[in-house]
Amino acid sequence: MGNAIELDRLTRSYGHRRGVVDLEVEVREGEVFGFLGPNGAGKTTTIRVLMGFIRPTSGRATIFGLDAWSDAPRLHRQVAWLGSDPGYLGELTAAELLRHLARLRGLAPSAWRALAERVDLDPGIPIRKLSRGNRNKVGLVAVFMGHEPLLVLDEPTSALDPLMQREFLRLVAEARAEGRTVFLSSHNLPEVERSCDRIGIIRDGRLVEITTVGALLSGHWRSVNLVLGTPPAPGYFDLPNVRVVASSGQDVHLMVRGDVNELLARIARLDVRDITITTPDVEDLFLRYYDARPGVPSTTADEGAAARAAR
Amino acid sequence: MTAATFLLELRRSRSLTAWLVIVGLAYGGLIAVFYPTISSNSAVVDQYLALFPREMIAAFGLEGSLADPGIFFNTYIGSLLWPILATIGAVLIATRSAADLDRGWIELPLSTPIPRTRYLGALIAAQLAALAILAAATTGGVLVLGLLVGAPFEAGHFALATLLAFAFGCAVASVTTLLAVVTLSRGTAGGIAAGIVIAMYLFEVVARIEPDLAGLGSLSAFHYLEFVPVIDSGALPSTDLAVFGAVSVVSWLLAVLVFRGRDLVA
Q1: Do the interacting molecules here have an ipTM over 0.90?
Q2: Residue B150 maps to a domain
């Protein structure tokens, strides 16, 4: 399989303002690639270049080998895009809008119908009367109603309720099962964790790392809060990858990194009344990169972040 | 051009066009109904108008007797109502590309296989349709109601007047379209376009009042918006149509070229 997306030293600036700098990314066909970064990091700029809305200042972006700028209309036959906050025409009903977009994409005018039913979208209501969550449903239907081999999604779940987020993850999984490629920009780590094969982390317009979700999480501390029936024996949690942050009788706060199986086995032997395991959210993960200044060990930042998450 | 985009844009222009048509029909029709009264009292009306400063009379394009159908049409419609309606319609419809970028709509159709040229082509086609409807309704309203009250209006002459009015509207819309894709700001493009129209109106008035500055007139679109010979004798305004046509075609082509290579950043 080749690459669905290639960014070759892609740089885009807005006058003196930084957009993205020297991005080097390859997204393989058939994979779900998460593009993580806080607001203003350059995710949307990258996607706008990919979609041919703006031109690179230098470098190149290609989709299935076609130049994202000069071949835009041709490559749009192979791409379905969902922006983070599309300005739908409020006077149209969801059905009218979806029918219109289906026509423009060369799909059957009713291509949206089954998916609209699946996400429980009322197609007869003018879009201006829809809640933000329902407008996001319109976006989901619009992007998934076709059969384009590449889906480019810019923070698609920001206003979806948990049920719809789950539906979204199912749709992404189905797309992957069909061999389609998904480029998903997000700052929602659980969403990325559940759906992506690999992720790229962007910070201040520069790519910091490309890794797998597993590798990203295994390098970070998770917080484990226990409420026990009886206090554990001293040194009970002495494991190389575990630190006891606080232990006050029956309440124990641990930090664990990497393989959690041994810790879970030890916990299982205790009389556990309650347990909370907190995955660091993306903000905490970013702290690793943001706080990794000379002289400041990144683990310190991780621990601090995880401790904050536990609170 | 794409049919789906054209139809959608036409639909989006529907309400604005309808309101402008109502204004055009109401004002034009009302004025036309008064034509017989003005005509039969032309001597008194001319005497009355002579009391006004020459500059003011020139500003309203009133040079001759209001009993003359051409002067009558030019005074109330050609140099007053139509430029206002056409400018409002053209500016609001032709700045839509910039407004749609600002609201985040334009990326949706442009994320599909529709090339930018065809997309803007559809928007331009919708402008043409809206302006054609508006021009036909405005001149048609005067003609029909004028005929009903016995005014000596010629349908063929009014058809030519409609063509000239449409061409003027196209010129305004095309320049506004160009400004919209260059500035990508509805406010800026609309403001500049309206400013240009007002400046041209002043140029024309000054050129009529001051013979030394007559050259200014040729820079004004209003110089070529001369309905008197069209309404009175059915003269084909070929030069005026050619000027407006050339401005329109060049501006729209430039707009398409600019839009093709423009970063879509609001």
Answers
A1: no
A2: yes
